[in-house]
Amino acid sequence: MFLVVAAALAANFYEFSGLGVELATFATVSTAFMFDPTVSALLAFVYIVIQMFAGGNTGIYLFWVVPSYVAAGFIISALEPSSLVQAGSVSAAVLQSIFVVFTAIFSRGYVGIFIRFVALNIIFNIVLFAAFGPLVASYVGI
User: Fold this and answer.
1) What pTM does this model have?
2) pLDDT of 5-45, one tens digit each?
3) Residue 88 burial class via C-beta count within 10 angstroms: exposed 0-12, middle 13-18, buried 19 and up
4) Is residue 45 a contact partner of residue 69, using CB atoms and an 8 Å limit?
């Protein structure tokens, strides 16, 4: 949780929050491998709320981002995927796709700006999961 907050604060402070840097996805997927679906959903809620508020993103996005992360935490834990790297990469792409759809519906004027964040976030998460996923998986025994 500390790293989620630190990343969000740093992204906000150094003004690179639009570059897709966040750790809530990594934290949500990683903990979904360790806990049952209910605990995973609760932790996903905590991670994304902390991330959103620490990063200063408290707008309308909360209405679809928070439930999406909660659902992701629950679903990933329930499905018990075999690879943290694959689950994380797919989750990042699916979550960001959902966010684009809702942004297009409710905040159409921000879609153009948001697309850059989405592309960079998916790339960031793929690299993050590829680099650190195996380490976390071996550390927690998954």
Assistant:
1) 0.94
2) 999 888 888 877 778 999 999 999 999 999 999 999 999 99
3) buried
4) yes
